[in-house]
Design goal:
It contains seven helices and 17 strands. By secondary structure, the chain is an alpha+beta fold. The longest helix has 23 residues. Helix 4 links the parallel strand 11 and strand 12. Helix 2 runs antiparallel to helix 3, helix 4 crosses helix 7 and helix 5 packs parallel to helix 6. It binds 2,5-anhydro-1,6-di-O-phosphono-D-mannitol (AHM) and magnesium ion. 2,5-anhydro-1,6-di-O-phosphono-D-mannitol binds next to strand 5.
Amino acid sequence: MQPITLTRFLIEQQRRENSACPAELRLLIETVARACKTVTHAISKGALGDVLGSLGSENVQGEVQKKLDVIANEILLDANEWGGHLAAMASEEMETIHRIPNRYPKGEYLMLFDPIDGSSNIDVDLSVGTIFSVLRAPEDASGRDVTEEDFLQPGTEQVAAGYAIYGPQTLLVLSLGDGVYEFTLDREMGAWRMTDGPLKIPSGNREVAINMARRAQWSPAIRRYIDERVGCESGPLAGEYNMRWTGSMVADIHRILKRGGVFLYPADHRSPGKARLRLLYEANPMSYLIEQAGGKAIDGRERIMEAQPIGLHQRIGVALGDPHEVDALLDHVVA
Ligand code: AHM
Ligand code: MG
């Protein structure tokens, strides 16, 4: 028998008593999943589809935009504009929020996304992904225009989050607040089929993901934690740890959800607030999935999902994965 489809999974979630998945949310997730199929189709054309390379433009964060960053952003906007489930969207690639145009009905949700995460990997055919986070619009937002402030909710308020990963297989990994489930795109049938879940981060895999080139930016605690594990010649953990770094957060987090270990991208301890990853498009949705799979997610000290956002494109340090590793890091912080 074939594994169940995403559609069936969502309908069954909706039917459950005290369901956290009303029909609007189910339809929103289906729309996002459909958009990710269009994105994977565009990516897989590669050089034949004239989708590789950079545009002459920069995004709001001053990063060079890849053609596919912009193509995927448009695909997600177009797919989600007319469905009636959203009040507005925000994306890593857009300076400010995108309100649903007046010609379409508005819904009660807000969605934030990183259309292509890991986009420096696109041109060299490594895995990239789309990350998304869903919030409820504040109650007082009905009948008025949604504002940027409406998006500044802590990660604990997310009602769903997930990512699509465009790798050797195209996968959708999703949580609606009750476990994390993996769906594989069945290209012949055009359907997403559940292939794993509820995911639980395997304990004790001694694997660390960190960009070692940024060592000068790390705090003394992070240095001690890493130095004890990676590249050291003596000490109780010498030779015990492996290191992996893909440059695509989706790929690294997916490995951690399936195989264990920990992912770190620390903030720059010399200039507070300077960090690489974005709180609302990357850190919060990934923290939601990691916690739903039994892991922990901190900014180096505090729980990421409790951080009160102060700006749409705010960045934050992250350490997420196996709870024992995150606790070991915390021991170094307080030591
Ligand atoms: P992007 O969304 O602009 O692609 O940036 C996020 C990516 C993450 O996927 C990855 O973990 C990180 O940037 C890699 O950064 P670095 O090149 O500094 O190693
Ligand atoms: Mg990106």
